[in-house]
């Protein structure tokens, strides 16, 4: 029993036992609580990358100034942290990434508080990189005034991967992050790897989701996988996301392609659930050398994505995802030649000072993004194919 009560798993058990006691001791109060719907606002963004040009930013907070109002106004903001954080090593970009606690602190200060650590670069720093990243995130958790969680790695390979637990506005949220593969394999010791092309691994993970998700009002799964630079989700990944929703996940958020893919609402068990196939890059240095005449092609698409703002309503019948709102964003070079993030609308309406050539570039890219999103306007229960803008 002592082992069962260790760590987050213990918190879940204690919280569940406490809830049972409350329900038995005060049934009238429980009925009142169940009848009062609770609403959450969540925001999902894509990859926080760390290329060499990103580390040259004078103040990492500048990266987020154009969008942090959205993050600070919601209840939780999700991002994929695609780099280890080992303060004992210098910052490093592609192909073997390493960031700094200061790089993380800017994200946390700006309102990002739900991190996936499971991605193909998670083991770039080896075992020590895992330990240092967890230490950096634990320190950030202590500093944060908001709910805070991360998932996808573990510091002790002898303990099972488990769901992270958060309680926000009385809603119990479970969160798990997994990746399809690693660039530097760790033999399953420290990073949670689930390859959706492996039937055995899929079934094992679905069993985990089925067993854990009933402990929560809202269950979120983060998945890192699929092909890079392709804006159409693979049919196999799409089917896997649907299986995860069937198994108990309310929201499945995908990343790794470095470009956006679509999203859809699925009606299941009397509620709406969300499959978000790829949120693309949030910040990277991939478009650093791009000129305003280079409007087409894969590189251009890596420099833009969207924030998906999602309202979740939780009542007696469980939690349901309401209509999401996609807010197009882009990386751009500011007046100090630093790559930062802004709403695409601010890049074309004069809010930000850009040359006419760059304003025209972002106006055209915004038209393409809107056309792309229009083709993915969520239709409950539907399955749509998506083509690149």
Q: What does this protein structure show overall?
A:
The protein is α/β, with parallel strands linked by helices. The chain has one domain (37-375): Purple Acid Phosphatase, chain A, domain 2 (4-Layer Sandwich), CATH 3.60.21. It contains 11 helices and 15 strands. The protein has helices at 7-25, 27-35, 52-55, 68-73, 101-109, 126-143, 199-212, 235-247, 298-301, 344-348, 356-375; strands spanning 38-48, 76-81, 114-116, 149-151, 164-168, 171-179, 218-224, 251-255, 263-268, 271-276, 281-283, 304-315, 318-321, 325-333, 339-343. The strands form 2 sheets. Strands 1, 2, 3, 4, 11, 12, 13, 14 and 15 form a 9-stranded mixed β-sheet that branches. The protein has a 6-stranded mixed β-sheet with strand order 5-6-7-8-10-9. Strand 9 and strand 10 (271-276) form a beta hairpin.
